[in-house]
Design goal:
The protein is α+β, with helices and mostly antiparallel strands. It has 28 helices and 29 strands. A seven-stranded mixed sheet has the order 17-29-28-27-18-25-26. Strands 9-8-10-16-11-14 form a six-stranded antiparallel sheet, with no helix packed on it.
Length: about 800
């Protein structure tokens, strides 16, 4: 009789070698399919499927339900909703369940980075989210999710509504656990008062033991149910051979219960049932309040996705889910409705409330040809909008992704704090063991409760929370300013800035360039000269190019055009080379340069002057106050521009900048920045393609939201609005954040340094230890939440 297949139960054909090692034994399989599925189950850490199944798998259902649900995330159609595709990698934001401290984040990051194909993973303990990048050619998303599940955590692609529901379910669970622990604490404390203070002085020993058994009855559900989250977190840590903050807490509770149980059964020694109940009750209160505070800090970015409506109305009147909109679809948006996707207005005009993105309170006018963004609110006009980005690549999605990146990127001080917290737990366990040994020899009746106080009082919860909560709050506050962080070091570097280097056109000026004078040096009419110039400038993306856009004429089209970024453009038309741009670019060495010099832009044909243009660009209303404010804080301001005309000098003099560098090429701008003294930490602000190299090379850089995509992708942060004073507010916020992080760390470390010797000396009662540890964590989180307030 043939051996049945261990997976599906079908007979195994003779002379076959399909086997998989399951539960320590080689199990025979009937076919390659069963072998592959069984091996996948084992590799995914789901061997428990075989331990607890009640029947063999059907051929139509070879994969257990848990693995099936993860495998769904490999479907390309499903991935369109949450996976962002980069050049060689995919990226996803994950929601995590079970993460409670920095040790959990470190554990997930450490193990995932060992997996083949993982490019990077960063976990944010405040938001309970992770940013995962992987190479789809080497591994599947389901395999990486399985790796997280094997560690004891749950992970799934982030969805604001799902995470909100999970948060409420978790809080409800904590309330149930709190209720049981609170009721038990009240009952056990009444019995403890009777026993300890001898309210019943002549109480018979039988009744004393009876009270102990009643206390045991109340304390048992507290230990087994209310304290369960602490055990689960501790078990995850120990299984991964690391130490988290719940390890000493779990040891304290279990040891106290076991000792009390032994004393109750043997009718000898002291019981600590009231301490167990009180420990758990106060720990749960602290964790509950901490979760609420951390939720408040993390809610700002997650709530942005809720601004996008669930449904969208197509041009034909039919309604579809907004997340299913594709590039090229045309939607209709009525007055008062939220925009369902990023796009461009094809018909209609209105005012749009963009305050949720830019922080600007006043609506802005938008008409045909203007870009609009998902989540913003249409004012009083009917709009038809052509979708230009799917939901995963919308501005709101990018803001959330970049905020997650910035929050998950830890400054040096946070990395040090995490390392200290991990080793601190090991040190506390060692000190606790030594404490017990000492007191057991000198005062054995007090050894256990003193050791419990040491374990609980010195738990490094506050130390692990000190930096992440402050960074999360600061990042959320910057989002209200309309400043989008793209790098994690921004807040740290912004505090150290002592030099502001800023571009002129489109940054200090409005970028609304106008042609004020046209000088012709040939017999060509001015209209034709402007049309030729406009056709050349059509291939540039710069405020100057937009000044010529009104004069475009297809009759003057060019065969080929090349853009020399930072210099100008040259093109071939009727076998003649035309150039437009700076004087040194437009003219060749043999050219006769006219005597008129005060022109920013020159147009030449075969090296001969055809025309020159004088331009004007109004200075932004807040540029003067920005320069003055930075100078008042001791920061030197340099205007770095490619413009070498008198206009650059006029702007520099009007704003009273400390230094003017004009006529600089893109490479020249970067060289200037590199030539600065090493003690100078420069903040570069720009907006154009020619600013991209210097934005990428600066210590810290900011691109204007109205600037080019190249500039924004090169910068460390992006100003979504146009108000430069937000930069100064950001710097002040960064300094406040640094101060609060230092306060948090000083409090966390100071508290532990003070409480540890007191606890070891037996001067801290167990309930005081619990109150102190919980209060320390709440103080740190509450201090960080000050960053969300307008007045600090």
């Amino acid at each position: 009789m043939n051996t049945p297949c261990y997976h599906c139960g079908d007979p195994v054909p003779q002379d076959t070698t399909w086997t998989v090692e399951i539960l320590g034994q080689a199990r025979q399989m009937c076919c390659p399919g069963c072998e592959a599925v069984a091996q996948t189950i084992v590799d995914s850490g789901l061997t428990s499927y075989y331990e607890y199944r009640t029947a063999t798998a059907d051929k139509a259902d070879l994969v257990p339900q848990q693995l099936q649900s993860l495998s769904l995330y490999d479907n390309e159609d499903i991935q369109q909703d949450f996976v962002r595709e980069n050049e060689n990698t995919n990226e996803v934001t994950l929601s995590l369940e079970g993460v409670s401290c920095a040790a959990c984040a470190w554990l997930i990051e450490k193990h995932l980075k060992r997996e083949a194909g993982v490019v990077n993973i960063r976990v944010n303990t405040t938001t309970h989210r992770a940013l995962l990048s992987w190479d789809p050619a080497q591994t599947k998303l389901s395999q990486l999710l399985s790796a997280i599940h094997r560690l004891g955590y749950k992970a799934a692609p982030f969805e604001a509504d799902n995470q909100e529901q999970h948060y409420h379910d978790t809080m409800k669970s904590y309330l149930y656990r709190l209720g049981i622990a609170g009721l038990a604490t009240m009952q056990v404390m009444m019995l403890a008062v009777a026993l300890y203070f001898e309210v019943f002085g002549d109480l018979d020993e039988t009744f004393r033991n009876y009270f102990r058994w009643v206390s045991l009855l109340f304390a048992t559900p507290v230990l087994l149910y209310s304290a369960l989250p602490f055990y689960l977190n501790a078990w995850r840590n120990l299984r991964a051979r690391t130490l988290g903050m719940d390890v000493p807490v779990s040891i304290a509770l279990i040891f106290a219960y076991c000792a009390s149980l032994y004393a109750t059964v043997t009718e000898q020694g002291e019981v600590f049932f009231e301490s167990i109940s009180m420990f758990t009750f106060f720990l749960l209160i602290g964790r509950y309040l901490e979760m609420r505070a951390r939720r408040k800090a993390a809610a700002a970015s997650a709530n942005l996705l809720k601004l996008i409506p669930a449904m969208a109305t197509l041009a034909d009147g039919s309604q579809i889910a907004a997340k299913s909109l594709k590039v090229g679809d045309v939607v209709t948006v009525l007055p008062g409705e939220s925009l369902p996707a990023d796009g461009v207005i094809t018909s209609g005009s209105s005012v749009i409330d963009e305050s949720m993105l830019t922080g600007e309170p006043l609506p802005v006018g938008r008409e045909q040809g203007h870009d609009v963004f998902a989540g913003t609110i249409n004012g009083d006009g009917n709009l038809s909008i052509e979708v230009t980005q799917d939901r995963q690549h919308s501005l709101i999605s990018n803001i959330i992704r970049l905020q997650d990146e910035a929050q998950a990127s830890k400054p040096k001080i946070a990395e040090i704090a995490d390392i200290v917290a991990r080793y601190f737990v090991a040190t506390i366990l060692l000190i606790s063991a030594c404490t017990w040994l000492y007191w057991h020899q000198h005062q054995p009746e007090d050894a256990l409760w003193i050791t419990l106080a040491v374990l609980v009082a010195t738990c490094p919860c506050a130390l692990s929370l000190a930096t992440p909560t402050a960074l999360t709050c600061a990042t959320s506050r910057l989002g209200r300013f309309g400043i989008l962080l793209r790098r994690g070091h921004v807040l740290e570097t912004l505090c150290n800035v002592n030099q502001l280097v800023i571009d002129k056109t489109g940054t200090l000026t409005e970028g609304n360039v106008r042609i004020v004078t046209t000088a012709c040096f040939s017999d060509m009419p001015e209209e034709a000269v402007l049309s030729i110039a406009a056709e050349l400038e059509r291939y540039a993306n710069h405020p100057i190019a937009r000044a010529f856009s009104a004069y475009r004429n297809a009759n003057f089209a060019f065969d080929t055009v090349k853009n020399e970024v930072g210099f100008g453009l040259k093109g071939m038309r009727a076998a003649q080379e035309w150039r437009i741009g700076k004087q040194e670019f437009a003219f060749t060495e043999q050219s006769q340069i006219p005597s008129a010099q005060d022109f920013q832009v020159w147009l030449t044909c075969e090296g001969q002057a055809i025309a020159a243009f004088r331009l004007d660009d109004p200075i932004r209303s807040d540029s003067k106050s920005l320069v003055s404010a930075f100078q008042a804080e001791g920061i030197q301001v340099t205007m770095l521009t490619g413009d070498h005309s008198e206009n650059a000098t006029r702007v520099a003099e009007t704003l009273a900048v400390d230094k003017l560098i004009s006529g600089a090429t893109p490479q020249g701008k970067l060289q200037y920045l590199q030539s600065l003294d090493k003690r100078q930490v420069a903040l570069m602000i720009g907006d154009g393609v020619n600013d991209a190299p210097v934005l990428a090379g600066a210590h810290l850089s900011l691109a204007m939201g109205s600037g080019t995509d190249v500039a924004k992708s090169s910068a460390d942060m992006v100003l979504l609005g146009d108000h430069l004073d937000r930069v100064l507010e950001a710097r002040r916020l960064a300094i406040r954040t640094r101060k609060i992080i230092r306060e948090n760390l000083a409090w966390a470390l100071g508290y532990n340094l003070v409480i540890l010797p007191l606890a070891v000396a037996g001067l801290v009662a167990p309930y005081i230890a619990v109150l102190g540890m919980s209060a320390s964590s709440i103080i740190v989180v509450s201090n960080s939440l000050r960053l969300l307030k307008e007045d600090g």
